[in-house]
Sequence to fold (610 residues):
Amino acid sequence: MSFDAAGGSTLRFRRVGIVGVGLIGGSFALALKTVKAVDTVVGFGRSRANLDTARKMGVIDQIATGWDDIEGCDLVLLAVPVGQLPEVMPVIAPRIGKDTVITDAGSTKRDVVLYARAALGNALPRFVPAHPIAGAEKSGAAAARPNLFVGRPVVITPIEETDPFAFKRVRATWQLTGAKTLRMDVAMHDMALAATSHLPHVLAFAMMNEIAHRPQAEAMLSLTGGGFRDFTRIAASNPEMWRDICLANRDSLCNEIDAFSARLAQLRHLIAMGDGPALEREFESARVARDALTATLNAGARPRD
Amino acid sequence: MSFDAAGGSTLRFRRVGIVGVGLIGGSFALALKTVKAVDTVVGFGRSRANLDTARKMGVIDQIATGWDDIEGCDLVLLAVPVGQLPEVMPVIAPRIGKDTVITDAGSTKRDVVLYARAALGNALPRFVPAHPIAGAEKSGAAAARPNLFVGRPVVITPIEETDPFAFKRVRATWQLTGAKTLRMDVAMHDMALAATSHLPHVLAFAMMNEIAHRPQAEAMLSLTGGGFRDFTRIAASNPEMWRDICLANRDSLCNEIDAFSARLAQLRHLIAMGDGPALEREFESARVARDALTATLNAGARPRD
Fold:
C-alpha cells in the first residue's frame, strides 16, 4: 500500500457537472477552479436555495436547468448522499457523453458499485468510484472551501470494468484538488472504513445512549473529562447519514463489531481474572500503536479534519 | 445531584503534608499557596530528584526528612498512585495528629476506603476520600500548576465513619483550589467513573489493538480521519496506571463492559436486520444527549483538561 505519486498534469475540463453541491461537491468545484482546471462548473441539486448560495459564492458558475445539462459535461461528480444514487444514476446514464468521466464521493463503495453496474450501462467503464476522507462537521455549499482535500486521502476503487484511461484521468483530477490518492479494491475499502470510521461511530452512539438512559445520567455526565468528550464527539454526527452508512456497509460493519466485541470480551476476561501482567501488555501494545499513528500523522503534517 | 456551593472561608493550615508530589499533589499545594491557605508545605516522596524540582519551583517549601514529619501536619493529601496506599497508610497512621484531616486523590474509591479502614485506626474518621477529575497527560512536580482544579469536579465520598467536621473542612479545602466539589457515595462514584472514564479507555485500547494486529494495519490507519484520532487518543495513556485502575475498579468496570456490550449487540442486531427507522432513532437519541453535554460544558465554560 502506498499513496500514488501526483503526476504533473495539463488536465483541463470544459464543463464539470457537480451533482449535489454540498461540502464535498462544492469544495471539489472550488479546488478545480483554483488550479484553473475547469472553464465552467454546473451545479445540479434539489435545493434551489443551496444552488443560489453556491452560485453567489462562486462555487458554481451555472445552475442546471434540467438533467439534460449533464450532456455537455466532460466530468461529472456524484456528491449526493449514497442513498440517492439509485435514483440519480438511471437519470444521468443516458445523458453522459461518450468521453465523459464520472466519479463519486460516497463513503461506502460496494453499494455504489452495485448501483453503477445496474444503472450506468455503456458509461460504466468511465465511472471511477472514489471516497475522499475529509471532514464533514458542516454541510451545504456555504461550507465549501478550496483546500478541503489538501493532504487528505482519497481512496479510488476501480472495478473490473473500469477503463484504465478513465481511472488515470479521475485520479489525476482528485490529485489536482491536493488530495493524496490511493488505490484499493472495493472490499478492502469497505472493511477498512468499517473498522476505522463506522465502528467508532457506532461505539460512540452506543456509549452516549447507555449513559443517557440511566437515572443517574446527569451526575455521571457532570464527571466527564476530556477523554470522554473526545471519545463521544462523533456521537453528535448526523443520524440519517449514519443510518445510511451503517446499512450500506452492513456486512463489513457487522464483521468489525464482532471482531471488536471478541477483543473487548478478552480484555474483560483479563480484568475479571485480575491478570495484571497480561492487561498491561495489552494496554502497552495499544499505546505503541497509537503513538506510531501520532508520529505518522505529525510526519505527514496532515491537516486535522 | 448538584455541585456544592463554595462557602466563604478563613481556612488556614500551618503545615500541609503532600505525600506524592506529582501533577495532582503539586497542583494542590500551589493552589493552596496561591490563596494563602497554608504557611508551609512539606513534600513526601520516593524520588529525591522530583522533590528537589518541587522545592526549586516553589511547589513545596520543605522536603520531609522522614515519615515522622507527618506529625506536625494539620492537613495531609495522599496523592501517590492508589496501589501504593496499602504501604503508605500504615506508616502514616500512627503519626497523624489528633486534629489533622486527611484526603486523597485516587481515581477509584472502594479500594481506597478498604485500605483506609484496614490501616488508619483512630484517624479513620478524619480521612475524607476525594477524587479530583483533572487532566493527567503530564506527570511529575514539574507539570504542577496552581489552576489545575479551577472549575473541575472533585468528587468527595465520605463514609459512615467520616466525621462531619472533617468532611466540611476537606470539602472547603478542595473548594479553595477552585474546584467544584460534589458529594457522592463510594459505589456511585466507582460506577460513574467506570462508565465515563474507565470503559472509554478500555474501548480505545481494544480498538487500537484490533486494528494494529491486522496484516492491513498500515493501509487502514492511513485512512483515519479526525473521528478515529479523537476516539483513540486515550489509547496512548499510561498502561501501568490503567492496569491498576481497571483492576482496582474491576467489579464496576465489568458491569459497565457488560451493559455496553449488550447495547452494542442491540445496535448490531438493528444493522444486521436493516432496521433503518430504529437505527436512526438510536443515533438521534445519542446526538441529542451529546449535544446536551456540549451545551452544559459550554455553559459552565469548564476548561478542557
DSSP finds eleven helices and nine strands in chain A.
